[in-house]
Amino acid sequence: MIPDPKSTLRTCINGHSFHKSSDCPVCPVCENIAKPTDGFLSLLAAPARRALENEGITSLEKLSGYSQKELLKLHGLGKSSLPILFEALRENGLTFFEKK
């Protein structure tokens, strides 16, 4: 694959070389290695997964303590992630938190 002419060659702390055109420091090789193989986090794109992990949301029980509005405020998590999260919660008898 030919890299984007606007990209720069970078090397992560683990020695992986990769091209990036954005300021995002995440190594795609390390990201693929870190991706879970099961559970609800494995269903999400990397930015959404990192947003939840950075907030400490690593279980469906913790996820159910957040409203959809709160989750959408997290950098990296967008509207396309909500149906995936909703379904994972539903399958386990849980729902998003709703203020009454």
Provide the fold topology:
Blueprint: E1 8-11, E2 17-20, H1 28-34, H2 46-54, H3 60-63, H4 68-72, H5 82-91
Antiparallel strand pairs: 1-2
Shape estimate: elongated
The domain count comes to 2
Poorly predicted runs are none
The total of beta strands comes to 2
Summarize the structure in words.
This protein is mostly helical and 100 residues long. The protein folds into 2 domains: 34 residues, no CATH class; 65 residues, Orthogonal Bundle (DNA polymerase, domain 1), CATH 1.10.150.20. It is built from 5 helices and 2 strands; from the N terminus they run ββααααα. A two-stranded antiparallel sheet has the order 1-2. A hairpin with a 5-residue loop joins strand 1 and strand 2. The longest helix is centred in the last third of the chain and has 10 residues. It starts with 7 loop residues before the first strand and ends in a 9-residue tail after the last helix. The model has no long low-confidence stretch (mean pLDDT 93).
